[in-house]
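COURSE: Structural Biology Practicum
ASSIGNMENT: Worksheet 4, Part C
STUDENT ID: 0417
INSTRUCTIONS: Below are two proteins. For each, the amino acid sequence is given first, followed by its structure token string. Answer the questions at the end about the second protein only.

PROTEIN I
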Amino acid sequence: MSFPLLALALGCTLLEEQRSLPTDVTWSGYVYADLPADAIPWLEAGTVQVTDLDDNEITTGTQLDGTPGYWEFDVPVDIDVAIRVSGGDQVPTLWRGRTPAGRAYWLTGALFAINAQTEASFFDSLNGWQGLSPSDLSQGEIAHLWGAPQDREAWAGAMIEVTDSDGSAQVVALAVDADGALIDAGTGPIDYFVAPNLVPGDVSLRVIAADGRVAETTWPAHGGDLLSAFYFSLPSF
């Protein structure tokens, strides 16, 4: 009479194992080699590295055979991470995120490394703007932050604070006018915000919206990094 009970016990054990949640999952998708736009190539020669927020490496991504620009990596489930995307012609671009709870794909265009020429042209154009004097990232001594709100209208009148180990950094909020030129956003909608010349180490961003919502995050920055706050969003009400 014991055999059926033993079989039942083994069956329950197997069922329990099948129901257990995964501790690691595969996360993948295409990575652009610059700001997403028409005819921008995929990142085929580079590195996609995942670290924890203490800057300890978790894993490095690989490209699928026969699918250039499509990267994947296995990561622990549901933890905060930083993702550094770099390549020969790209500035090391550091993202923040949280790993998924199951097999997941990021949206095409959601992850990219900004081309060094794009970064240099943009920050050079801000030289002298409100006293800004962005240093050259290629020297590897400082980091820049460059962000774009997910919802520009929701950021009208927002306070944007950036701090590094030296304290508060200068932040400039910009809008794009009808002619495509960058202007001071003032209390209106924000298209871009920047904070150049940041000290490597922990760099924190805090956004306080006019309606009281608060969003914040921190990057473990290296010298030469471009900290990406693209698609940065406020919490839901």
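PROTEIN II
(use this one for the questions)
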Amino acid sequence: MLEMGTREKKKLQTGQIIAETALDLFLEKGFHETAVAEIMKEAGLGTGTFYNYFASKEVIIKYSLAKRIDMASQTCEDIQQYDLDTTEKLIQILEVVGNTYDKNRQLVELYLKYYHSSDKSGKEPPHGERFIEVLAKIVLQGQKENEFRKDIPCEIIVEMFTGILKTTMSSNLKHSFIENINYKYSILVKGIVKR
């Protein structure tokens, strides 16, 4: 792997400074109330420099969330390699997702407001297929090792699991994210009928 040069490091650091400054202002003042000139003044940079790094304020939201999701996705990929049974891997992944969501709840809400606006051109979710691929590998491993049912297609189990994550993220219940998802995971694994 090639080492990053000084120029690339500086560019990466400048982009990070702009993004973090912008997020602080978005959360403090509001997205629409924050001007590009204000972001750059706060960051100690010229206004024109903004467009060398980001096409718009909206791109900062997507970039920032994608960066955090990439870190969580890498942790989930690492968990997949651990010497644990598949159920324990899924539990650890839930914790990673829950902690990432809790730490970035305001950013996620900001992204969802942006993502659900009327103009959605070029506004795909920032996480892609990485997370689904990790889940699929774990489910397939569980089926191979007879921990999970083989009569249900892997993609159905993965879709159910991702559905649980989505409903938990949009939940208005007073339970914490981890509590909420653990209840749902328990229902998925053990069922709702008392035996």
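ANSWER KEY EXCERPT:
Q1: Confidence is low (pLDDT under 50) at residues 120-126.
Q2: The CA atoms of residues 79 and 108 lie 23 Å apart.
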